[in-house]
Amino acid sequence: MEKEKAGATQQVDERIIVPGPAGFHPPSAAQLGVSLPDPGQALMYGVLEPDEEKVMEEIARKMLTSPNATIFPGPMVLWAWNEHAVEKAKAVLEIASQVPNVLIIPMPDYRPKYPKVDPEEVINPNHPNLTIWGNKIEACIFVGVHCHYANLTLKMIRAGTNCCTIALCAEQGHEDAMLTIRDCDKAKLQRVAQVFKRVREQLGMKVPENGENVRFTGLQSKVHDGKTHTNPLSFLPSDGSVGGAGAFGHKPEHMQREA
Amino acid sequence: MSESLEAEVKTNPQGDPITSLEPEQKTNPQGDPITSVAAPKIEARKDPHAEAKRQREVTPEYMFLEAPRVREFITGSESAKEAVRRSSVDLSIAYPITPQSETMQLIGVLYGEGYVKEYYRGEEEYGVMSAIAGASRAGVRCFTATAGPGTLRGIEPIASWPGHRLPAVAMFTCRVVNAPLAIQPDNIEICYLLNCGMVLFHAENQQDLFDFLMVAFVIGEKNDVTLPVGVACDGFFVTHARGYVRMQDRGLKLPAREAWRGAVPVLDAENPPARLSRDAPVQKSNFMAYNIHAVWQQEVWAAVERSRKYIDRYMGGLLTAENVEGADVLIVASGSAAAQSREAIRLCKEKGIDVGLIKIRSLRPFPIAELRPLCAKAKLIVIPEFNYVGWLAKEVAAAIFGHSKAKIVAGPHVYGGMSMPVEMIVDEVTGGLTGKRSGNVPMSAMMGDIDQAAVAHFLQNI
To answer: What residues does CATH 3.40.50.970 cover in chain B?
Structure first.
């Protein structure tokens, strides 16, 4: 069944990096001999896959069929540092628009949250397992996270949870993710979105006609007047302002309501 | 740099450009200044940074693999200077402790010439290494050099560099570190550096030093590595002595550091609060998972592993192997011990004994996968070192355990400023083959396929 799902030549028993819990303190993927892919390649469960399109398809299948699939955008796509960051954020939202009921939970920075984190609303590299457990997430995508912090996060999730981790990396990919694509610029992220659309249609899954397929977390619902879902593409920058959360529709009154 | 450009620059006898802007003053035959004549005509002020400004940026691939080279006969410190000249270094901080080499003094010359953007003298090594940490985290390319006691004085901040993911480059010109104080060659300090989490190379000679230092900047700054790189050499033997070094044109330089591509965000020094420790202090607490520091350490060592492919690409491998095919006897060595081993191998050949040489260039990562097949059929492995503890022999023995039945001789060792007569190495080769008891290496330093009864007797009598 797993082999069939993978849709690739890979044998299940070849897999090295699989959803956990891997244990109290498992070796890192590097210690297990997993090395990063070269350009054009990707990693699928710790095994080099020369055709990254196959890995994109497996990513789509996992995100479309796993409970509480979630996208975790990191600082590099969450904040409008520059035009490129905005373009990549748009592409991430295009991916989100293809996954019914997907959650988007941010990793806004890397600092531990004092006095306590709200694990259902944000994810943090110092205790990412709490967010996975709190939302019962079984597949997730990390994108826009600095590689060091992504690697910490991926190791901890593999150790303590049953979540299938996916890393869409702008650099060389992540060996501790179960599935990873490297060199993810705007164009490649858009290609991932297209693969998601194709696989979703193959699976016979539909998104709402109004495009409101992203499921709000509790706080997100609260600041959006109790709505439960939203259209991710409606958050595209509308006023041309680059350099703040306002570029993605976050308004001052939202801040007041959060308080 | 073209010849015509070089001709514009006046140089001192060492070949360094003269950067003084003082006009030449006429003197009488006794050498006193002539003050009664009209002031000499002052020539137009020359830009001391002119040559540095004309450097052309090239890719690492071109610099390391394609660029034509010219051979010069220079000291190790001068070769380090020439490497830094071509490496687009932003900041260098010096604490020229005795027994330093003249390396950091020469880097100061580069600052005068505009090849290094910032340069100053720190208070002591702890301060130097801490300041390097801050600067590297702020996103600039950093270089420093130290030796012996200086290395150990700075080792707390040095050991924190990998965890902070700081791709600084440090040169360690190894000297005695133990009391009583001495300034002699001894590479014991390397065993303190092995487990910091940095990438660590060991240069045999002036050429290695030049090549390894330049490569260090490039490898350390790769996104998937983002680690400090230490380049060690055996002080005095390499730093003060001259050797032939083939160098690229000094008009070429490596691309500048792209800090935004690192594995961690750079320090935002413009917006307080800024602090040198990574956010946040990582402690087991209600705010952290139980394994946060453990996975952090795993990540540092994973980054060390990732450097392997870049070492292969730019240095041609973590080790070099000479004449190992079919050889029953191998010498495994690094640094100056490799140089001594070459001569020992020549003497062995005169005696009719074929000996192969494996030179370890990268100590971290260690060439485990490369060593195993090379040592698989050897009957005797001799590992000479310039230190008491034999850190390389331990590394080799652990790496090939179960993959070779060779008798391993962890020696000969010299230390505390001794040189290593090549005959000591030859004796271990011939003794190892004939079974004759060594006069220089104790039985306790023999490993592998050895006479256990002899070892038991030895241990009973010590």
So the answer is: 51-261
**CA–CA dist A23, A158 (Å, integer):** 8
Contacts of A126 in chain B (CB under 8 A): 280, 282, 287-289, 292
| More confident position, B180 or B57 | B57
Of residues A110 and A3, the one with the higher pLDDT is A110
pLDDT at B98: 59
Q: Residue B433 CB: number of other CB atoms within 10 A?
A: 16
Work out the burial of residue A254: count CB atoms within 10 Å of its CB; fewer than 13 is exposed, 13-18 middle, 19 or more buried: middle
Residue B50 C-alpha, separation from nearest chain A C-alpha, in angstroms = 35
Q: Which residues of A touch B223 (CB under 8 A)?
A: 147, 171-172
Which chain A residues are closer than 8 Å to B369 by Cβ? none
- B452 pLDDT band, cuts 50/70/90, is confident
Distance from CA of B308 to the nearest CA of A (A): 10
Domain boundaries, chain A: 38-258
More confident residue, B18 or A31: A31
CA distance linking residue A226 with residue A216, whole number of Å: 9
Task: Residue A121: count other Cβ atoms within 10 Å of its Cβ.
Answer: 17
Residue B269: per-residue pLDDT: 63
A46: left (phi over 0), alpha (psi -120 to 50) or beta: left
CATH topology for B326-460 is: Rossmann fold (3.40.50)
B302 contacts A29? CB cut-off 8 A: yes
B282 contacts A126? CB cut-off 8 A: yes
State whether residue B271 sits within 8 Å of chain A by CB: no
Mutate to test the interface with A, among B267, B298, B300, B304 (most CBs of A within 10 A): B298
Residue A198 vs residues A180, B199, B444: alpha-carbon distances, Å: 19, 44, 67
B296-317 as b/e, with b when 16 or more CB fall inside 10 Å?
bebbbbbbbbbbbbbbebbbee
Residue of B nearest to A170 (CA): B261
Query: Which amino acid is present at A25?
Result: H
Q: Residue B9: pLDDT above 80?
A: no
Which residues in chain A have Cβ-Cβ distances shorter than 8 Å to B298? 27-28, 30-31, 155
CA distance linking residue A181 with residue A189, whole number of Å: 10
Q: How far is B91 from chain A (nearest CA, A)?
A: 24
Q: Token pair 């092995």 is at which residue?
A: B194
- Mean pLDDT across A227-248: 70
Q: How much is the ipTM here? A: 0.88
Mutation target among A32, A147, A172, A174 for the B interface, most CBs of B within 10 A: A147
Flag if B301 and A31 touch (Cβ within 8 Å).
yes
Extended strands (E) in B159-204 = 169-174, 199-203
The B residues from 52 to 111 touching A (CB cutoff 8 Å) are none
Among the four given CATH numbers 3.40.930.10, 3.40.50.970, 2.60.120.330, 3.30.450.20, the one describing domain B51-261: 3.40.50.970
For B220-267, how does the pLDDT look when each residue is reduced to its tens digit (9 = 90+)?
999 999 999 999 999 989 999 999 999 999 999 999 999 988 999 888
State the maximum Cα–Cα separation within chain A, in Å, rounded to a whole number. Answer: 53
Indicate if the pLDDT at residue B7 is higher than 70.
no
**Contact call for B299 and A175, based on CB within 8 A:** no
CB contact under 8 Å between A129 and B289, yes or no, is yes
**Pairs of residues, one from chain A and one from chain B, whose beta carbons lie less than 8 Å apart:** 93
Strand partners, B442: none
Is the pLDDT confidence value at B4 over 50? no
User: What's domain A38-258's superfamily in CATH?
Assistant: TPP-binding domain (3.40.50.1220)
What is the structure's pLDDT at A41?
96
CB contact under 8 Å between B309 and A35, yes or no, is yes
